[in-house]
User: Fold this.
Amino acid sequence: MPFGPPPSSERTLRAPAAHLADLAPYDPKYLPARVLLSANESPWGLTESVRACVLAALADREFNRYPDPLAADLRAQIATYCGVRAEQVLIGNGGDELIFDLLLAWGTGGRRLLIAPPSFGSYEIFARLTDTEVIEVARRADKSVDEQTLLARLGEGDIDLLMLASPNNPTGECLSCDFVERLLAASDAPVLLDQAYLEFADPVYDASPLLARHDNLVLLRTFSKAFGLAGIRLGYLLANPAVIHELVKVRQPYSVDSFSTLIGSAVLADLDALDERVATTRLERERVAGELARLPDARVYPSEANFLLVSFPGAAVIWQRLYEDHGVLVRDFSHSPGLEGCLRISIGTPEENDLLLEAMRKVVEAPV
Ligand SMILES: *Cc1c(COP(=O)(O)O)cnc(C)c1O
Assistant:
């Protein structure tokens, strides 16, 4: 054997980057179920008219060609929908990709991201992936942001990027535009205000009017929630063109494919369906919140989104009974820091919500 022994299974693998050592791959905690209320998805698929429009448009698309990196047509459509200029829009492969891109541009190499947990888990995971230091200002016991502490920490001047969700996932509440404006004035770091659930919220929480006055404001939106397109991976952000200029350097040029762009355009052309679905979800949210609040010892947190955070004594057991005995899947956060005893329940169709409530009553009233 002139070249030494052949490769054997005993050969070890060179270690990957050191900062991956303590990371676990993302787990969406998906399980097959009769009623899926765990991922804040829309319970409704494409409308008949959008489906027909997509099928017709498919026939003319040249899928042998690369997509337009910035999807000029969709970009213009999003700009009109949001009341901004096209240069203020950047699309991504889901909102998640844009969060990652922000960290590639403003994080890395020990630079600092400020967050207010409990919030969306991707901020911290992507920060660790990009070797960005995470600084936390924890929320209060009632899950609200500790505004003074957050402002003071940001004001120290060593923060490179801030990420906050409004409505926040998984707690459901929004930040006032007054407070957002104070954050924007407290430093020159980009402030990502993640508004993935904005469509379900009171319009007073739409921070887009602040874009005109603050170059460091970045708003994140997505087609995954109210628009019902979690399966195609399409999100966008609204920001000053100088921010977008930096992000275009780090983003993968073809991350959004022609097919997703086509569906996004079709859905944006059918806003009546969106309005009707959002109105139903908001009504259902209040109905489900009222019913859950009547269960013994339940605490329902106020929500501006398409889900409710609820705490119960014995939440983990309730989660298990809902799933195993009734086929209703909700998200168990009861072992997460700051969310002890909490379940997050997405709002489904009225029929699904009835099934949830019926199952919940049986589970909570059953002798343990
Ligand atoms: C769902 C969600 C997103 C983005 O989801 P994508 O499917 O990647 O667009 C962003 N932020 C929050 C808080 C979310 O809940």
Summary: The pocket of pyridoxal-5'-phosphate is lined by residues 40, 94-96, 120, 165, 169, 194, 196, 222, 224-225, 230, 235 (CB under 6 Å). The chain has eleven helices and 13 strands. The first helix runs from residue 48 to 58.
